[in-house]
Amino acid sequence: MILRKPDFYDKFKCIAERCSDTCCVGWEIDIDKASQDAYRKVAGTFGDKLRENIEDGHFKLLPHDRCPFLTKDNLCEIYTHLGEGALCEICTEHPRFVEVYGDIMERGLGLCCEEAARLLLTGEGPLQFTACECDEIEDELSEDDIDIRNQVFYEREQIFSALADSTKPLADRFYVAFGYTPENPFAPLKNADAYLELLSKTESFGPAWDDALARIRNRIEASPSEQAAEIEDEGYFSENEGARLLAYLIYRHYAKCLFEGYEQGKRLFPLFFWNTVRFFARELAGECSPEQIKINAVKILSRQLEYCEENMTLIESTLDML
Q1: Packing angle between helix 44-52 and helix 33-40, nearest 10 degrees?
Q2: How many Cα atoms are found within 13 Å in the side-chain-facing hemisphere of 16?
Q3: Other C-beta atoms within 10 Å of 82: how many?
Q4: SS3 of 108, please?
Q5: Number of separate helices (H) and strands (E) present in the chain
Q6: Are 71 and 77 in contact (CB under 8 A)?
Q7: pTM score, whole prediction
């Protein structure tokens, strides 16, 4: 099997307590069976604490959805007491993801993680991918399915090539990759109101998103009547950062149309994501240092959209009808 990874994948390492956020708050943490079996055998006071805090295959969260094994310094007690090998599967893998397309496996890092977002945005030049052989088990595909997969991969490569062409302004690359011109800066939707309307229909992951959405609404409502002309890109992202972000979102989502449909929606989702973060970076990021605005904006939007199946279906199905 061929394993494909983005150029920053192997550089990733959890920054633990240095992270301004934590992936151990706000998520239900499922425990795989092997880890549950191992936790039942841990002796002593810590073993008792482990077993007391497991219910129906996941950890019992504390108030504010905080993992019971997260210390006040945002360190993991399971890691410090038992070592990295004792972490359950989801804690070991997060924020990594994997997709398999027959004899091709693709790995990546979810942008809800601020270190993953930082590595993507600070990479030099166009996004690149590495490929190597691996020993994972292939998924069986018929010859017809392989032909369709190869066509989707070919179309995806064309988008990658267009976005990587740094001899052209980013707006010109958009036209080649997505068919939209600078005359409609809010493509693939009509204007800022359309973005707010669609984002408002998504299911909220919590107060951080509610606050961000309120700030977006306040900015639009405070603008003169012709929002499309008045809401401007404030220039937080460089062209290289924009091209890398768009290419990465195409990498993560477009080929999944093979299983989920919404081919047009998955092709346009990166453009929708990009325009949301570039026009509303400050509103998404909230209170943070200037150098953290881009990372926080990407992180909160990724968490709101990419980590909720219902929200992704809503966005992609809407874009699919354009």
Answers
A1: 140
A2: 12
A3: 17
A4: strand
A5: 16, 6
A6: yes
A7: 0.90
Residue bearing the bigger pLDDT, 170 or 181: 170
Angstrom distances, CA of residue 134 to CA of 231, 256, 312: 47, 21, 30
Residue 159, Cβ density class (10 Å: 0-12 exposed, 13-18 middle, ≥19 buried): buried
| Tokens 């990546």 belong to residue | 108
User: In the structure encoding, which two tokens stand for residue 155, read together?
Assistant: 């179309």
Dihedral sign, CA of 59, 60, 61, 62?
negative
- 126 within 8 A of 7, measured Cβ to Cβ: no
Looking at the DSSP bridge assignments, the partners of residue 6 are 129
Token readout for 274 is: 């990009």
Band (pLDDT 50/70/90 cuts) for residue 139 is: very high
What one-letter code names the amino acid at 93?
E
Report pLDDT digits (tens) over 2-37. 999 999 999 999 887 788 877 778 777 889 988 988
- As given in the structure block, the two tokens for residue 130 are 């590495």
Amino acid at 257: C
Q: State yes or no: pLDDT of 89 exceeds 80.
A: yes
Per-residue exposure over 126-136, b if at least 16 CB sit within 10 Å of its own CB, e if not: bbeeeeeeeee
Site of tokens 């934590």: 22
